[in-house]
Every structure is written in C-alpha cells, then in structure tokens.
Automatic annotation (TrEMBL), chains A, B:
One Gene Ontology term of the molecular function aspect: transaminase activity
InterPro entries (UniProt xref): Alliinase_C, Alliinase_N_sf, Ethylene_sulfur-biosynth, PyrdxlP-dep_Trfase, PyrdxlP-dep_Trfase_major, PyrdxlP-dep_Trfase_small
A GO BP entry: amino acid metabolic process
Protein's UniProt keywords contain Transferase: yes
Cofactors (names): pyridoxal 5'-phosphate
Sorted UniProt keywords: Aminotransferase, Pyridoxal phosphate, Pyruvate, Transferase
Organism, scientific name: Actinidia chinensis var. chinensis (Chinese soft-hair kiwi)
Protein name per the record: L-tryptophan--pyruvate aminotransferase
Pfam families according to UniProt: Alliinase_C (PF04864)
Domain Alliinase C-terminal residues, every copy: 31-385
Family named by the database record: Belongs to the alliinase family.
Source domain of life: Eukaryota
C-alpha cells in the first residue's frame, strides 16, 4: 500500500523474491547453465543504487500509444533516444539511417523480422537458414505455428535451394562465440543480423555494423532479462512498418514501464562510459568476463580433457586495445571417451545444453557464462573435481 | 540523472509525454473513436497519487524467471496473488481451480489459446469461429501467419463443418456489448471466453464465470493499456502449460516491471472496494460510464436518426442493484438514408470503425466510449450538430 517513501525504502534491497537468482546454493545443488540467464552484472547494479531507480505513478502510461508521429507508434521517445545514444557511444551499430522497432525481447523481433522479410505471396514457405552451430531456439521459433510464410531449412552451409530465403547471421555467434558473415550467396536472400552479443563485455568492437536488419536486446547488453526489451535497427521503411504491424497484431505494443526503465538504464550506462571516474559498465563487464574465461581455460586445460574454441586478438574501437572475445557461452567439446557430454556433466550436477540442439553433436555442450558469481564458482569447483577423478580417463 | 527524489518529484505529473492522451484538442480536431484506447479513468488515477506509485531499482528483475516453482515460471507471485484477490473481491470469475498464465496483453493470450487448444496433429487447420458481430482483430490475428494449425472460419452462426473447431465467446461482446454464450454445439469444439469487459463498470456481474479458458486484461479492467498485461484463467493443466510454452517461444516471458506495477494497481483497486469510505474504483467507473451512456442516448434520441442497442436490467452481484450494461463501445446503426456510416461520421470529424470490419455491415459503426472526457464532449457536440443539420434528413 503505503506511499512512495515505503516504496523507496524497500526498492534497493534485491531479495530473492525480487530477483530469482539470489537464493544461496547448497554445495551439492544442481547448477543450471543450460539457459543463458544474464544475472552476472548483479553486483554492478546493486552498487549503482538510486541512480538507476525509476518510479511510476498510477496515472502514467494509460494509453496504447507512445508517439503517434513515429512509424513505431508504441516506442517511447526516451527509449528511442537512449538506444541511439548508446550505439553512438559504443560505436557498434549505425543508427542514423535506421528505423527503431521495439519488441518484447529480441525473440519477439526475430518473429517480426521473419514475417516482414518473407515474400508475401509465395506459393510455398520461404526457407529460413542459419549456419550450424546455430542458436537452438531458431528452428522451433520458425516452425512451431506451421506458418505458410516461412519454414526452417537448417544449416546455411548445406543450403542449396534456388529462390527466396532468409538467413539469420548471429554475430558473435550463440553458441560458439565466433564472428560471422552471411554464408549463402543467393540473389534472392534477405539477412537478419542477430547482434545480441555485439557489446564490448563479450567481444572487441571491430566495426560499426551497418546491416539492413540488426537485432539487439537489453537482456545481454545491460543484463536486465526480466524487462523483456529488445530493439531492431531497420534500414528499409516498409520492413520496419511490417515489423511494427507484427508487434501490433501479436501484442498491441510493448510495456511502457519496461521501455522507460530500459531507457533509464541505458542512459546510466552511456553516462558511465562518458564521464571519467565513473564506473564504466562495459569495463566492469569486460573484467568480469575476462576473469571467468581465464578461470575456465585454466581448469579445463588447453585441450586435455575438454576443449574450448580459441579466439583471435582483435583491435577494439571502443577500448582502443587488442583483446580476445570472451563470449556469453562456453562451447565445450569433450574428448573421445565421452559419447554424450551433456549427460556426463549432468552426472556431475552441471546442466548444460546438448550440442545436438544447435545442429552440432552430443560431444559438444553450451554452458552459460552469464550465471551468478556463486554458480560460476561451483561450476569451476566441479570441473576441478572431474579433472581430479579423471586420471587415466576413467570417467564413470 | 538524479536520484529517487527527482524521480518522485516528477512522477505524479502526467504530462503529454507520459500519457499520449492529455494533449488538448482544438474544436475542429478529428476525434479518434476507432480504437478503444481506455484513457477514461485518468482523473481517478491522478487523484490516487502516491498510493499507486511503484519504484524499480537497477538491481531488480534481472532474471528471466519470476517463480521457478510455478507452471507459468515468468508470472510474478505478487501479480498472481492480486489477480486471485480482485476476482474474489468482484466475484466475476472462479480462480481457485484455475491456473494463471500472464501475457503481453490479452491479445497475446488469444494467440496462445489458439495454439494450445487446436489438436496438434490435424491434417488440416482447425476452424476458428466467433458469432458476428465479432471483434475485428480476431480474423487477422488468426490468419496473418497462415498457420497450418488453425484458420479463421468466420461467423459462428453459419458454421456447420464437422470435426474439431475453436469458438471464441466474447462476453460482454466487442463491439455490441451483448452477453453471450457459445453458439456452435459440435462435440469436438473448444471454447475461449474473452471476458475483457466482464467488470462492474461495464456490465452487471450476474454470475461467477467458471469456463475452461477465460481471458482478462488490465487495459479494460484498470485502464492501463500501456502496461500490456493480460491474464488467462485456465482449468486444464496441459492447456496452461501449452499456453505458457507459446509465451516462451514468442517472447520468453512478460515484462516484470509491468507485472509488478499491475499487481500494485490491482491491489489498490481491491482495497478501494473493501474499505468503506475509500473511493471505490468500480463505483467511480460505473458512474462515469452511466453518465456517458445517458448523454449519448439523449443526443441520439431513441431510434430517430441513429439507433443504439438496448440492454436489459440485470441484478449485479457486486453492487447488489439492478442495472443496465454500459459497454465500452457504442454499436451505432444509422437509418436508411446513409449507406456508409463510417464515411458519414468521418465527414463530421469523428473516426469510428466500420461495421463491415466486425462481420456486420456499413450501416453500423463501433465508437469507443473509453476516450478522454474532452474527446467524449466533442463527440457529443458533433452528434448534436449532425442532428441540428439533419432536419428533413439532408445529411450532405
């Protein structure tokens, strides 16, 4: 009930109720690294305190509309402004000649892009492809409604059909962190660039991306997955209009509260990059991810029992330094003595996602590097135990 | 960027920026009653002040998860509690033996229900029907992805196909406010009850609804369309699970900010009903709607130029009084001298939705009764002008 004072008094305590990730784990707890729940930046946001706090009164955001003058009529002007600002501060994507379409997470916008980009009057569904290993959600997202407009056609590397197609280019790639370009070179192809992880905490910013359709999400940029805010940068006006129409028909817009809070958070991050002395969010994120990757590579050893991808040193335009990628997921491969790596890790109370889900094989798993500090420490401990008990490769 | 004080200082001023509906209208402005933007309760929420204010800190709602123990794992426990509470306070729907699934507005949940209820392995798409006049968005929502699972089959009153089908029962009905029951009596039919307007401000609560799938939305209950929060009450566990799966595949959950704010607002409304002396939200809403309907019936006259549906007096279990329905939309019919009522009203700077969009005819329009006070007054003024200039039925 109470007034705003009560709200404020409670607001800066992140209890488990407010944040599902803060419950303390017992030493024999199963740790879930199957999903990429981005809770790793929690301590940063706890330290930020009220600088990021936003309040809503009962009389705000009653209308469906946010800006009737905008093509994307439900996009809050503050969010549009802060999206443009953070991209120009980071330099990872061109915004000036692009329209912004907001969605309930970038997943919503993948669906919107498929709808907007497939030819409207094709006799048969347009093929949707992505190079393996591809994000495990793409096939189901494409096929679950058995749409007559598009259908999943699998690995872009083996796709050789003539006619129109849609290729999803995920860069850095989920699950393996590789930097990617389009593979199919058909003349009737259209591209969707999923750039969810193209931020300095995960990879060097090597260029200002300038593709036709680019997808981003607050979940992986700021770590606020609970807000469900994603945005698309779209060059072509009609494509942006069709994506906006998709969001209208499926959900009649996107939560104003989530949009305004995301605008606030993006603003705080941009400020943190621009004002010397303030705690640069991306520097914090880079240090955190670098520390985790260092620990992981150390415990796994370079190719002894399991192997990890190697990433080249690249010059980052944002930091002005050479560095390696430190992806949000570890794409781990086991050696010949293990058939099913996911099953093996489950035996050690580590849940990771089976490589076969990504169009790869069961000798691979994807393990989230975006978990809480506590989960990550348990993950490292258990990998150490596995190594300790694995002399002579007797795994079972 | 300031701290919480700045937030609070600003939070209770509803500027046009914060609420698209507060810009002042010029006397010759076109008034848009085509969409049902529920901005009519604005003065109630402005008067509520800080009682409804909710604040979010930077470290809240990072995770995708809200309650891992719940079938609907992204549903905030507070929202679940307040949804159950308001239904038991109002007595309009049974909650105890139903699962709650939250969506980004009830539109999202219509899609989820179609997906969850159609037989999974049918050779051809399941027919989706609704009695005309039906909500104009149903046909497009059903067909826009050309799903192989379901397809729009039009007016339930003329539907005579054998085999499985889905019937949407909207009660009170959008556009005409009538109270409805299922019409098709096939043995393989499944029902979706869209009860968005089954609240005391719109219609007498004549029974506690106890259907298999019941859809509600904050937009029409509290007037907060900008939050995009809808909920489904679902009896069957597998159907609730499939609807939850749909929300997962399309948007990976629903904004936590919007859920927590809606929980707060629903709580304030329930309190307003339970504590004598406090400003009962539904009483306020009933007075407001009754006043608008009285003015509208007065200016239109009973059947002179245009006609409106008549509604029976019913006993309302919530108020303990007999009253008529006072729907969120006016379903207006013109007399024989007008061919296209929408076009006619547009000539008088009133935008309403053409009856043909609802499976009816151009002699009908749907005009929103949920607009701001200012818009409603202009609407009434212009209807008066039309009557004034219509002696001898010279309309043009």
């Amino acid at each position: 009930m109470g007034g705003i004072e009560e709200q404020v008094a409670g607001v800066n305590k992140c209890t488990p109720k407010e944040n599902g990730t803060m419950t303390s784990l017992s030493s024999d707890a199963v740790i879930n690294l199957d999903i990429g729940d981005p809770t790793l930046f929690q301590s940063y946001w706890s330290k930020i305190g009220d600088k990021c706090t936003i309040a809503f009164s009962g009389c705000q955001s009653l209308s469906y509309f946010a800006n009737t003058k905008n093509l994307c009529w439900f996009l809050e002007p503050e969010l549009e402004e802060q999206i443009k600002r953070i991209h120009s501060v980071v330099g990872n994507a061109a915004v000036e000649d692009h329209h912004i379409v907001v969605g309930t997470g970038s997943t919503h916008l993948i669906h919107a892009a498929l709808f907007a980009l497939c030819p409207p009057d094709c006799p048969e569904p347009t093929s949707v492809v992505c190079a393996a290993p591809y994000y495990s959600c793409y096939p189901e997202a494409t096929d679950f409604l058995r749409s007559g407009l598009y259908k999943w056609a699998g690995d872009a590397q083996t796709f050789d059909k003539d006619g129109p197609y849609l290729e999803i280019v995920t860069s850095p790639n989920n699950p393996d962190g590789s930097i990617r370009e389009a593979i199919v070179k058909g003349i009737q192809g259209k591209l969707i660039h999923d750039l969810a992880y193209y931020w300095p905490q995960y990879t060097p910013i090597t260029c200002c991306a300038h593709y036709d359709v680019m997808l981003f999400t607050a979940s992986k940029c700021t770590g606020h997955a609970g807000s469900r805010i994603g945005w698309a940068l779209v060059k072509d006006k009609d494509v942006a209009r069709k994506m906006t129409k998709f969001i209208e028909v499926t959900t009649i817009g996107v939560s104003k509260e989530a949009q305004l809070r995301t605008a606030k958070i993006l603003g705080v991050i941009s400020d943190s990059c621009l004002h010397p002395g303030s705690n640069n969010f991306f520097e914090y994120g880079r240090r955190l991810m670098a520390g985790r990757w260092e620990k992981l590579r150390e415990v796994m050893g370079r190719g002894e029992l399991f192997s990890l991808p190697e990433y080249p040193q690249e010059y980052c335009l944002f930091t002005g330094e050479y560095s390696e990628s430190q992806p949000g997921f570890a794409w781990m491969k086991c050696d010949e003595n293990i058939e099913d790596f996911e099953k093996f890790l489950r035996g050690h109370k580590i849940l990771a996602r089976n490589g076969s889900r990504f169009g790869s094989d069961p000798k691979h798993v994807r393990a989230s590097m975006l978990c809480t500090e506590e989960e990550f420490e348990l993950f490292i401990e258990r990998l150490l135990t596995i190594r300790g008990t694995s002399n002579g490769n007797h795994y079972f």
